[in-house]
Amino acid sequence: MENSNIIKMARGIVKALSILTLLLAGITALTGVLALIFKEPVLDFLMKFVDKKEGVIISAKGLSFMSTEEVLIKTTLLVVSLFVLYYIFRLVRRLLDNLLVDKVFVIENVDLVKRTSYVVALYSLLPVTSQTGVTLNVNITMLIMAFIVWIFSQVLAKANAIAEENEFTI
Asked: Beta partners for 135?
């Protein structure tokens, strides 16, 4: 397989993931809004529209006992984390777009990779929701990955500087 075909395939996968992420964010936000409007647990509200004779099973364990405020907090955190994830996918897609047109050693790629490292670091610090509430967990793996991506941005910056010097060399 040719490199450009691999990049096109990766770009398609990233595009699909970004669309799925936006869709999940929209569904999550809508669910939270419904919980606020109807002042009842979301799954209890949704169960009114599910035909129980059809064999559709939705587990309401845990969620049916959440207050409206808990649903709002958890929904907001999930939507924020989904939008941060969408932004990461968007940055990666722009980088892949540049690689497709053979723009490898350009300052824009350095900026994209550096911003990706910062956003991944932010993502690793986002609060997590659980059955017991909201906790601040630092995802060490994501933080290490952000550091490695930042190092790669520094290497790319040096490579970009060398490529610019070579353009002026006779």
From this structure: 128
